[in-house]
Design goal:
By secondary structure, this protein is mainly α. The chain is 79% helix and 0% strand.
Length: 131
């Protein structure tokens, strides 16, 4: 009887510890949930923008002063940036093979998305609360 356990990993892969990071399922679920949340948020956003076409700055500020509109816009931008960051992370992990470049780009990806989220949130809240 064969006492060696069956494995699809090579001996070199086992020695180096390469293989599943056990993180793919969570990442997949996060992408699916953010995609699902973006469906109604995107529909809301497109309809809202179409209703604002031809309006001046005052009309847009009045629209944004409504709490529901400000909250929905924050959710739309938040989910969009989160989904974008995760999508770019997947592409970088799959197609960039240099560990140094991969690490630098992954950190920059998160940093840029966090900064964009902070600027967007600050702008929306400032406009919503402006007299």
């Amino acid at each position: 009887m064969n006492t060696k356990s069956q494995s699809y990993r090579s001996d070199l892969g086992r020695v180096r510890g390469l293989g599943s990071a056990k993180d793919g399922t969570h990442h997949w679920w996060v992408m699916k949930i953010s995609s699902f949340a973006l469906i109604p948020l995107t529909l809301w956003f497109v309809i809202s923008v179409l209703n604002l076409v031809g309006g001046d700055q005052v009309a847009i500020q009045q629209w944004l002063k409504h709490p529901l509109q400000a909250i929905m816009l924050l959710l739309f931008i938040g989910f969009s940036l989160h989904h974008s960051a995760n999508g770019l992370q997947t592409v970088m992990e799959d197609y960039i093979h240099s560990p140094l470049y991969k690490t630098v780009l992954l950190v920059l990806n998160k940093l840029v998305h966090v900064v964009l989220a902070a600027v967007a949130a600050f702008s929306i809240i400032t406009l919503a609360l402006k007299n």
